[in-house]
Give the backbone structure.
Amino acid sequence: MKLNSLNNVFICKQNNSLQLVKIEFTNTFQKITPILSRTFQWREINSVSKRKRFIANLDLTSPSDDSNILDGNFLLLIPGGIDPHVHFDTPGFEFRDDFEHASSAAAWGGTTTIIDMPCTSLPPVTSLQNFKSKLKAVKNRSVIDFAFWGGVRGNDFENKNDVYKQVGQLSKIGVAGFKAYLISGMDTFTDLTFEQILETAKIIKENNMILAVHAEDKHRIVNRMNMFQQKNRNNWKAYCDSRDDMAEVLAIKTLIEIAKATDCRIHIVHLSSAKGLEQVRKAQHLGLKFTAETCPHYLYFTQQDFDNKNISNFLKTAPPVKKATDRKELWKGLSDGSLSFVTTDHAGCNPKREKASKNFWEVYGGIPGAEHRVPFLFSEGFLKGKLALQKTIELLSTSAAEFFNLSQKGKIQVGKDADFSLINLWTSDVVKSSNMHSKGNYTPFENIVFNARVEKTFLRGKVVMERKNNFIAKPGVGKFIRVRNEQ
Ligand SMILES: [Zn+2]
């Protein structure tokens, strides 16, 4: 296998310290050689002029003309992003998005591995047979590597499906974990009652797997929704008031009781509120196996942004974004470790068809974010001083690799898959939906400036995206990853 080299790239050593290195790789990392023995601090290169001076002061031998040696152009090299919560919609919901478009968008955004949710597929990934049909439908259609979540639905219990057998088989075949809802808007993937989720958690624990839950309290939300709709309140405010932070708190409290009763690993997806985070921290202090993630939209927007008519409908998602105090606490949760990683909950649609209604209740809830996660977290987290460089990289890649036992991913280390991206931290881009690569091109981040750009993405040693040449690899280079669950 051909050995490639990438010269002159910065890698993160620890916190905000970096090293200038040369990377050698085939489909895996082969060798990482310091070009400069000393490490240095980010502040030494944190502006265009400082970086220029830093490079000018280096006494480097002239580059060889060996075509296998690529020039890293003194960019930051990070392990390929891992986005463990996406809805790529193949098969069944491809009028919204599909694996070709969404995986291309992810590659443009520096992500090389995703884990696709089980609910936005038809059939949903709830049995071995359905898993096989999804794998077949997705074959040769991804630009990046992918794994699947399994799921457990209210429908499974109502149809008297053998949930015990389904979870067992999916665990063995290598799903990343199981998704369930305490409130769902989908007929094909209904929510679970308390009794059902308790039963599900017992089964998942027996298989030593993770139960990931959409945690908002159904009773509270449905009551308030009915009340508001009867009063003809159909704007964003009514929607947000129906799904407030108390809805999140009630659901998480329920799940804490489930965790206590079963010792099952429980993961809260797309956490949105400070009070919700407080509950997650309580569970962690009790020693429960209780984790959570959040998404860029909760870290950037507040409900005031719904007043901006240009993005109001595009910002709709469930749970809705909250207030400035929530946003602040979520950033704190990322830096103190109470939140495990940042996901996108990528869920696109055809905006003309599904984001246009004047009745906010009818607007499709979902944001296609796969392309923006990495530049967002560098720009808003690292460059604004909210997160250290090392922490930023962990939240985008390493932590998810460890959490889901993706042993070949998430680190620049000899033997691991050569999945990586080159990040330019000395440039700015204005987010434009017209430049997006997912099928439904819209974003609440429209016209926002990111001070970081993904220049090039490699998957198992091969370039899958190069911005300069507007290059994206053909779908099919991405492979299915069987998650090795320790039984
Ligand atoms: Zn989701």
Notes: The longest strand covers residues 4-14. The domain at 81-403 is CATH 3.20.20.140 (TIM Barrel).
